[in-house]
Amino acid sequence: MAAKLNLAVLISGRGSNMQALIEACKADDFPARVALVLSNRPDAGGLQIAQDAGIQTASVDHKAYDSKAAFEGALQDVLSSHEIDLICLAGFMRLLSADFIGRWPDQIINIHPSLLPAYKGLDTHARAIADGAVEAGCTVHVVIPEMDAGPVILQKKVPVLAGDTPDALAARVLAQEHAAYPEAVRAIGDGRIRLVDGSVKILEE
User: Domains plus CATH for the chain?
Assistant: First the structure.
């Protein structure tokens, strides 16, 4: 088996998608390992979860820096001290600059709780319900400087049901997120999906 991808998972909270990746990486045939969990919040619940799983953790508190550039420089210092192949954003609530993204070309992915390009940003489920959408879902995509606009790696869909609330819809979508993120990372690690020059290339199995 080829060497496993070293993942850095960036979180701001409890990190349920981080947990899904940790669980997936326990399989012997999974082509990646979580090498680092990094948070911009020292009190993020996901840090303890990662530590309990024996994973290295670090925090870089954005409030401790007087500029975005200084904060991202500190993030870069931590990431550079590990041999990271792929950065997975998992509820990381800071927008990354073009300069930072440029240091990691085709090496940052994110999961978003909508079927992009629909409902970029926040409050995706409430907006979908208000619009009368018949389906919702999640998207794993490449991160580019424009928010939630990078090339799509994969999507999973759920129906929007009559009488749905944002919380009910969010719960169904979250279950699909927990399946989609490991599936995308596996496809990248197996070489079935390659991120090249900001685009997604799907190769035949």
Answer: 1-104 (3.40.50.170), 111-205 (3.40.50.170)
